[in-house]
């Protein structure tokens, strides 16, 4: 039985790491950006001088770095809000189990602001992501 639970825990861990891999790659790209972006920009400047690239390519590494950094914001905010989300879901289940529909309704009314502000912060993070990537928020 212990081996079965260990297998379930291991599989859950692998699935979670796999789901977070894109976020990990973006984070690594943002961390190395202060080193790589000026080098890429300098390289592109040389290509512009020789006529192999357009002048727009000089600033392209900077705009890509801002877009990558902006796309990390929603994931970060969601990660910060995740423990509260799980806690509220469990409390909601408990309230429905103990109090039925009335218990769930009372909990919804009583915890509205506790749920509103994390959702608002996530919405603002999505806007930051959109602006950083040149999209209309």
Describe, in plain words, how this protein is organized in 3D:
The relative contact order is 0.09. The protein contains three helices and no strands. It starts with a helix and ends in a 5-residue tail after the last helix. The longest helix is centred in the middle third of the chain and has 51 residues, at 60-110. The protein has 137 residues and is mainly α. The model has no long low-confidence stretch (mean pLDDT 75).
Outline:
It is built from 3 helices and no strands. The protein is an all-alpha fold.
Q: What's the main sheet like? A: none
Q: What is the percentage of strand-forming residues?
A: under 5%
Quaternary structure of the protein: single chain
Average pLDDT, to the nearest integer? Answer: 75
Q: Based on Cα principal axes, name the global outline.
A: elongated
Q: Which segments are poorly predicted (pLDDT under 50) over 5 or more consecutive residues? A: none
Number of strands: 0
Q: What is the SS-derived class? A: mainly alpha
Question: How many DSSP helices?
Answer: 3
**First and last CA, distance:** 50 Å
Succession of helices and strands: HHH
Helix content: over 70%
Our Rg estimate from Cα atoms comes to 23 Å
Can you lay out the helices and strands and say which pair or pack?
Elements: H1 2-49, H2 60-110, H3 112-132
């Amino acid at each position: 039985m212990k081996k079965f639970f260990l297998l379930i825990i291991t599989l859950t861990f692998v699935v979670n790491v796999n789901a977070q891999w894109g976020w990990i790659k973006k984070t690594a790209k943002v961390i190395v950006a202060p080193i790589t972006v000026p080098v890429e920009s300098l390289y592109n400047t040389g290509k512009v001088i020789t006529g192999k690239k357009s002048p727009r390519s000089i600033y392209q590494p900077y705009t890509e770095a801002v877009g990558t950094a902006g796309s990390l914001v929603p994931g970060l905010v969601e990660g910060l809000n995740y423990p509260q989300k799980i806690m509220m879901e469990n409390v909601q289940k408990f309230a429905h189990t103990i109090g039925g529909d009335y218990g769930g309704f009372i909990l919804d009314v009583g915890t509205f602001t506790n749920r509103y502000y994390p959702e608002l912060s996530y919405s603002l993070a999505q806007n930051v992501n959109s602006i950083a990537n040149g999209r209309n928020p």
